[in-house]
TrEMBL record:
GO terms for cellular component: cytosol; nucleus. InterPro entries: ATPase_NBD, Type_II_PanK. CDD domains: ASKHA_NBD_PanK-II_Pank4 (cd24123). Residues 1-29, 319-354 are annotated as: Disordered. One of its GO terms (biological process) is coenzyme A biosynthetic process. This is Pantothenate kinase. Residues 326-339 have a biased composition (Basic and acidic residues). One of its GO terms (molecular function) is pantothenate kinase activity. The lineage of its organism: Eukaryota, Fungi, Dikarya, Ascomycota, Pezizomycotina. Keywords: ATP-binding, Coenzyme A biosynthesis, Nucleotide-binding. It comes from Clonostachys byssicola. Pfam families: Fumble. Coiled coil: none annotated.
Length: 471
């Protein structure tokens, strides 16, 4: 990744624009320039030469007084080498499971101009930690950006933007601007697809991370956002979209059920378990029913016929065996009257210790079940709406290869290779990046945006001179 990031970088300065022959320099009318200059409270972001930073060289951790916060910050930053204007806002997307926060910071230990976008998440239950973190940003980071005290503004989206609106405003003493969630998702995705190199990729077993270069001609597409629940948006143009469907069987379902069924303590733990589990220990396969392939309708013996379909029988068999072995092997009755078990291998009280399947088997099976289901619904939606590009976002994916492989395979299989699934490195941050970009006036977050006031004024003077000369 290090060389890739370095390769993608375009040096500072106007030459960066000139290096892209397919994108001619925009001419800007005097009206446009004046409008941009005088627009109050607006700051533009210059994404010229933006690239994803190699994690090894990520921003040094913020000093937050040694306070331990259960945050995750392993998503790579995005370096914006040409952005020099002050940024005095941060953006948060407060969902049912996670808060996703995006903020801009200057380079701490570098003489380079520009700065970077930082990505951080918190469990929504930890809203207080998130508020503390935002206070820290208000008091330290944003000042380093050249912002003045009291200038901070929080762009907020997701359901929590409403639920926690008063709490955030009161705790920070700042303006909180709320933005529509679906629109933010789409704006964020458009930004990643069109502007950030090595962000969007396709996935297959043989070519796991095949990057697609940024491109302009992106509509129409289907966005499948897999968060706690799943939303599917048909996007036909900038800010033109319709929510065409969704399902409540999403990331929250996996998170919740696996916390009940396995001993996993965190989402990452669940994914790690799924890595080495064997779903065929719990799933009923075509081969379990037919003893081989069901060739007549094209089903292989390894196709999952019923997720978790073998569990009931095997659990009953294990219990019967325990009965036969006498009272010493039986679990004591539980206070709630339910039949619980004390499992050593799975860490779950619901799995008999001698069951022929484990927590990891269950994790893998449920991950497949949910991903396959979403993949199939996504395909059907794309078919109904005649869309061949399908982008998968949301923190559920979390760069996990089994998840991406399942989704990608489902799209390829059902569409007979006619439709393409795409993934993103910042898949969980579409909404928060969209909210971040909404702070900007026209052209924000677009490669053609002008940032430098002097340059704009010079252009205005030139335009006026030309107009006078030709009259
Ligand atoms: P929402 O906006 O509904 O919170 P997200 O896009 O943030 O949705 O995705 C939330 C889902 O992501 C969770 O339900 C879970 O499946 C998954 N997830 C990824 N990372 C984590 C984590 N660190 N903690 C909890 N869930 C996580």
């Amino acid at each position: 990744m290090a060389t890739a990031a370095a390769d993608a970088r375009i040096p500072n300065g106007d030459s960066a624009v000139d290096q892209q022959p397919h994108k001619p320099r925009l001419t800007t009318s005097t009206d446009e320039i004046n409008n941009t200059i005088i627009r109050p409270g607006s700051v533009k972001i210059n994404v010229e030469g933006a690239f994803i930073v190699d994690p090894d060289t990520a921003t040094p951790a913020l000093s937050n007084g040694g306070r331990h916060s259960p945050t995750h910050h392993e998503t790579s930053d995005i370096r914006l080498p040409n952005h020099t204007a002050v940024v005095s806002h941060i953006a948060i997307d407060i969902g049912g499971s996670l808060i996703k926060l995006v903020y801009f910071s200057r380079e701490v230990d570098s003489t380079d101009a520009g700065g970077r976008l930082n990505f951080q998440n918190f469990e929504t239950d930890r809203i207080d930690d998130c508020v503390e973190f935002m206070k820290h940003l208000r008091d330290t980071e944003l000042m380093g950006n050249g912002s003045h005290p009291g200038e901070l503004c929080v762009m907020a989206t997701g359901g929590g933007a409403y639920k926690f609106y008063d709490k955030i405003r009161e705790a920070l003493g700042v303006d909180v601007l709320r933005e529509e969630e679906m629109e933010c998702l789409m704006i964020g995705l458009d930004f990643f697809i069109t502007e950030i190199p090595r962000e969007v990729f396709t996935y297959s077993d043989t070519d796991p991370m095949h990057f697609v270069p940024p491109r302009e001609d992106i509509y129409p597409y289907l966005l499948v956002n897999i968060g706690s629940g799943v939303s599917m948006l048909k996007v036909t143009g900038p800010r033109s979209f319709q929510r065409v469907g969704g399902t409540s069987l999403g990331g929250g379902t996996l998170w919740g059920l696996l916390s009940l069924l396995t001993g996993a303590r965190s989402f990452d733990d669940m994914l790690a378990q799924a890595e080495h589990g064997d779903n065929t220990n719990v799933d009923m396969l075509v081969g379990d029913i037919y003893g081989g392939d069901y060739g007549k309708i094209g089903l292989k013996s390894t196709t999952i016929a019923s997720s978790f379909g073998k569990v009931f029988r095997m659990k009953r068999e294990a219990e019967a065996e325990a009965e036969d072995l006498g009272p010493a092997r039986r679990d004591p009755p539980a206070k709630d009257g339910l039949q619980h078990h004390h499992s050593s291998s799975s860490g779950s009280q619901y799995i008999p210790s001698d069951a022929p399947f484990t927590g990891p088997d269950i994790s893998r099976s449920l991950l497949y079940a949910i991903s396959n289901n979403i993949g199939q619904i996504a395909y059907l939606q794309s078919q109904i709406h005649n869309l061949s590009n399908i982008y998968f976002g949301g923190s559920f994916i979390r760069g996990h290869r089994q998840t991406m492989n399942t989704l990608s395979y489902a799209i390829k299989f059902w569409s007979k290779g006619e439709k393409q699934a795409y993934f993103l490195r910042h898949e969980g941050y579409l909404g928060s990046v969209g909210a971040f970009l909404k702070r900007q006036p026209r052209n924000w977050g677009r490669r053609g945006s002008l940032e430098n006031m002097q340059e704009m004024r010079r252009a205005a003077v030139r335009a006026q001179a030309q107009a006078q000369a030709s009259s």
